[in-house]
Specification:
mainly alpha, 18 helices
Length: 369
């Protein structure tokens, strides 16, 4: 067995950026969210988050496997599943408590409804049971149940991906193609009503695993074929941007994101290919070394995701709504900056409390695919 490669500082940096973007995306009045990926593409930070999650999961599985063997690696991810489930329950609790406080103080009625607090008040025992059994996920906690399932499958997927990447990709692509009927068949657990259909989104998680297990060699990226793919990716990204900015004037139906539509997959893959070019040149590693606080956010991902939900709710509520024009824009921008600083401080606090992280190393661009 080959020794495990060190975790990539580029991956931690991207994870940190995505976690900050997720917080901003969930502040309805955010100014900076108009500069984020979803404003110029048919995909958004969720695709990046899930794909990087698959990459990081494969790295973690291989690290434990090389040191302690397959049994320990399986046990680690069973524990990880429980950790994510507890984080989900905490996120749901924080969301509901936020809704209760906002309703009590007669603040931010829109957010009160989004938190699901009114429905929980009407039938607390029923709602608590459905939340605990993943039948319903309060606002902002909806991505975590999907990760509970993904953590369970890592010990099965990674070995297959290592031995036969085409088989792993074929199984994953077939599951993605059948995601809607599979969700309906699983309606006993209301999977068809999840914000993220796990049968669909597992495709990006598996792609992330494959990128870790079988990175694209640098010589292929620099070959004529690689340069041609780069030109195609640039054209695709520009085409999707024009479509999003000038053609699709209305919000897209939610089921396209829920079931990970083909357009979102293609748009994400084009962006990902261009990102690998920046990684190969070392540009991302240099940027990451200059922004260690963002890297730390990526290293403390679960804590920052849970805390970020509360940060977004607080900032959205605290941002004045009786302003207009420049005053409103400046207040919203101040809220964005406060949210970013809060996430950075949370990552630093959590990292210090948990102890020093394992050393990270910048790796070659090919190792980050």
């Amino acid at each position: 067995m080959n020794p495990p490669r060190p975790r990539s500082i580029e991956v931690d940096f991207f994870r940190g950026i995505v976690l900050i973007v997720i917080v901003l995306d969930h502040i309805p009045g955010s100014v900076l969210q108009h500069l984020m990926l979803h404003a110029y593409a048919l995909c958004d930070s969720a695709e990046v988050f899930v794909c990087l999650g698959g990459y990081a999961s494969a790295a973690a599985y291989n690290a434990v496997l090389s040191k302690k063997g397959p049994k320990a690696a399986q046990t680690r991810f069973h524990k990880r599943c429980w950790e994510i489930y507890r984080a989900y329950l905490l996120t749901a609790l924080l969301t509901l408590l936020s809704g209760a406080i906002l309703q009590r103080l007669h603040l931010n009625r829109t957010m009160v409804d989004l938190t699901g607090w009114p429905a929980f008040c009407a039938a607390p025992l029923k709602e608590a049971f459905e939340i605990a059994t993943l039948r319903r996920q309060p606002y902002l906690s909806s991505v975590l149940p999907m990760y509970v399932l993904f953590a369970l499958t890592v010990p099965l997927i990674v070995p297959v991906a290592r031995k036969s990447p085409l088989t792993a990709l074929a199984i994953s692509a077939t599951t993605w193609a059948l995601a809607i009927p599979l969700a309906k068949l699983s309606a006993i657990d209301d999977v068809s009503n999840w914000a993220f259909n796990p049968f669909a989104w597992q495709l990006l998680f598996v792609i992330g695993i494959l990128c870790r297990e079988h990175p694209v060699p640098t010589d292929i990226q620099e070959s004529r074929t690689g340069r041609w793919l780069t030109k195609v990716a640039v054209a695709a990204v520009l085409a999707f941007a024009v479509t999003k900015l000038f053609i699709l004037t209305q919000p897209l139906p939610g089921h396209l994101k829920q079931n990970l539509s083909i357009e979102r997959v293609i748009n994400f893959l084009a962006i990902a290919w261009l990102a690998t070019g920046l990684i190969r040149t070392g540009a991302i590693a240099r940027l990451a070394h200059r922004m260690p606080a963002v890297v730390k956010v990526g290293q403390t991902g679960l804590a920052c995701f849970v805390g970020g939900t509360l940060i977004s709710l607080i900032v959205d509520t605290a941002t004045p709504r009786n302003l207009s024009g420049l005053s409103h824009g400046l207040a919203a921008l101040a809220g964005d900056l406060i949210a970013i600083v809060a996430v950075l401080l949370l990552a630093r606090f959590w990292s210090d409390w948990k102890g020093p992280a394992q050393p990270r190393a910048a790796v070659t661009g090919a190792d980050c695919r």
